Each structure stands twice: as structure tokens, then as C-alpha cells.
Amino acid sequence: MRSAISVCPDVFEMSSHETLPLAFDVASLLESGETASGAASTLVQIDTGLDYAAGHPSAAVIQGTQLIQAVTALEAGKRYRLIIQFTAAPGKVWAPSLLIDCPE
User: Fold this and answer.
1) For the chain, what is the HEC assignment?
2) pTM summary value
3) CATH: 2.30.38.10, 2.70.40.10, 2.60.40.1220, 3.20.20.70. Which one for 2-102?
């Protein structure tokens, strides 16, 4: 089972000149005894629907209940969706996502 979860804020604004570590706290998605594992990220450029690999050159990192992905080199005037999929337990996969606006 894979579930997509939107995060707060609904839209995050980021400049094309920035490199930022974006983190999702998934503690509220985990039941007792579960831990986040196997995190994999995708940064989808909304207008093409393709993974914008240049914008997330390193792998997602798990630190406790935080899933962290560095995002960089976005194109001005484009929108992106960052998705970090992870496994909480056998057969239980979550995929929190964040919409990123890059106006400049």
C-alpha cells in the first residue's frame, strides 16, 4: 500500500539560486515499533511530469523521524513536487510530498 501525503505548507517558495535541505517529519505516520527506512526521493517538474534529477543530486537521508532531501538548481518560473517515499513496515509505504514554486 502506497499513500501520498501532502505536507504543510501547501506550497513552498524557493529561489533558483538556493540550495536547501527540505525535511519531512514523519513521526505522526509511524505506529509504535515502526521506523522509516528505504527513503527514495523524486523531484517532479510539474510542466514535464519528469523527475528533475539535477535538482536533487544526492540521496534522501533519514535522521530519526526526519526525511531530508537537499534541493538545488531549480529553474526560474517552474513548479516542482518533491516526493520522498519510505517504508514504515512490511507492506506499508508512505510518500509525503511538497509543492515547490520557483518564481525567480
Assistant:
1) CEEEEEEEEEEEECCCCCCEEEEEECHHHCCCCCCCEEEEEEEEECCCCEECHHHCCCCCEEECCEEEEEECCCCCCEEEEEEEEEEEECCEEEEEEEEEEECC
2) 0.89
3) 2.60.40.1220
